[in-house]
Amino acid sequence: MNSIKNHDREPSNDTSENNIFANLALASLFSLSLLSPLPAFADGQTEKFKLPPIDVKDLNRCTLASSSIGQANAARDKLYDLRQCNLSGSSAKGFDLSGVIMTKTDVSKVNFQEAQFSKAYLHESNFEQADFSNAIVDRASFAGSSLRGAVFQNAVLTGTSFAGADVENADFTEAAIGSFDLKNLCKNPTLKGENPITGADTYLSVGCGPNISNK
């Protein structure tokens, strides 16, 4: 009887507490929906993406800036759009550039050492003599870009596509490349020459062996 009486005395308090927790939960979910970052647009094996128009009114758009989120899924709180920007000779050493979008972008001779490019869309851009030493270029796509003379020494290139890219004179010495990606890269007809900076033989630096067809 005492347990029944005690239960009868306190229903209003339990109901009140439940309402408070329910309201807090709803508020938290609403806040998360407002603050949740934008998804990344790219990964190395997806061929086509429907990109939004370039925001030509954003005068500060063409700036190399490291992400403050640093998530493995390359999510950002704002679309990182560097399309048609001229950033030649700049430095982004150690920057997290995950989720970045580049088309018709000039990033020739840029220092990308130790940078992160998870799910980056890097199409039809100029990466000539860019330095990606010790960088993490994960699930990115360089489709149609020029990487002539670029350096990828000790870089991680997992799930990254070089389809249609010009990699002549690039250096891939000690780069970590998956077997599937390696096979595709070794079939690239531009995989030849010698890097003008390191002197490395491009084809040999990738590790293309006799068992991998280059036809």
Could you tell me the mean pLDDT? 81
> Which architecture of the largest domain per CATH?
3 Solenoid
CATH C-level class of the largest domain: Mainly Beta
* C-alpha termini separation: 87 Å
User: What's the alpha carbon Rg, rounded to whole Å?
Assistant: 24 Å
**Total discrete domains:** 2
How helix-rich are the residues, as a percent range?
10-25%
Helix/strand order, N-terminal first: HHEEHH
Per DSSP E runs of 2 or more residues, the count of β-strands stands at 2
Q: Profile the largest sheet.
A: 2 strands, parallel
Structural class: mainly alpha
Question: Strands across the major sheet, in which order?
Answer: 1-2
Q: Judging from the principal axes of the Cα atoms, what is the shape? A: globular
**β content, as a range?**
under 5%
Number of helices: 4
Keywords: Membrane, Repeat, Transmembrane, Transmembrane helix
InterPro entries: 5peptide_repeat (IPR001646)
Transmembrane segments: 20-42
Pfam families: Pentapeptide (PF00805)
